[in-house]
Amino acid sequence: MSTASVEAAQPAPHPGRIRRRRRARIAYWTRGLVMSLLALLFLTPFLWMLSSALKRNGDIFSVPTQWIPDPLVWDNFVEVWTGEQSMLRYFSNSTIVVVATILGQLFVVTLAGYAFGQLKFKGQNVLFIAFLATSMVPAQLLLVPRFMFFSQIGLYDTLVALILPGMASVFATFLLRQHFAAAPRELGEAARIDGASEWRIFSRIYLPLARPMLAALAILTFDSTWNDYESALIMITDEAKYTVPLGLTRFMSDDGTVSLGPALAGSVSSIIPVLIIFLIFQRHFMKSMARAGLR
């Protein structure tokens, strides 16, 4: 049988199926266009900030807005990184706080989440509900008691005062509790029968299963700690210990005027680490969020 006869023998696509395919294709491209426009809308403030950081102060609020600076002015970034108010010191302080907070929080919340999710002990549910209830207290109400506590124990005006409170997180503990509770208990029971200790069961069996969730929590903790302004404002007075959010206020003079070009250059620089961390761990972040949604 020839090819022409085979093609002639095949039935023609039904008109209704063709219309459904065409509508599906149009809907697909329409959704893509709408999402692209929304993404551009959300990126507009950042693009304006980046454009303004490369302009002279007098050109920032020019009308109409000049999105592509002409000429490109790099002096703002040079001042931010090499001037008298260099942000290198602030970046190093924030890095210390963020790394210590992430490591401490992941250690604490993984143990707490495993205890609530896999172990059985008396009063477990009551204790967990009481622990969740603490999240209803606004964080701002705890700033003054925290200030008084750290002042009494001699940790006020130190980076430790920013690190210790971040190690405990109700949200992170709840997520890991849900993760460990959904993990198969048969794995732990089989290991206990073979004589494995509880720490070995936790570290060798259940902890590796939580890597995507830990990566997602690390990103969220990095973002919240890196951008934490209130805690640093209350706990830190020595400029040598300023973090990035506090360091950005150094571009404001005593009379309230702002050196806008360097301030925007510093803001752009402060966002870059967050973007880098998210791009590196975005696969784990999306994977963990998808799993959380399925549960």
From TrEMBL:
Keyword field contains Membrane: yes
Gene3D superfamilies documented for this protein: MetI-like
Location, primary (coarse class): membrane
GO biological processes: transmembrane transport
A GO-annotated cellular component: plasma membrane
TM stretches of this protein: 26-48, 90-114, 126-147, 153-176, 205-222, 260-281
Location of the ABC transmembrane type-1 domain: 91-281
Pfam families for this protein: BPD_transp_1 (PF00528)
Bilayer topology: Multi-pass membrane protein
Record keywords: Cell membrane, Membrane, Transmembrane, Transmembrane helix, Transport
Subcellular location: Cell membrane
UniProt entry tagged with the keyword Magnesium: no
Assigned protein family: Belongs to the binding-protein-dependent transport system permease family.
Name the UniProt record assigns to this protein: Carbohydrate ABC transporter membrane protein 2, CUT1 family
Organism, scientific name: Jiangella alba
Species lineage: Bacteria, Bacillati, Actinomycetota, Actinomycetes, Jiangellales
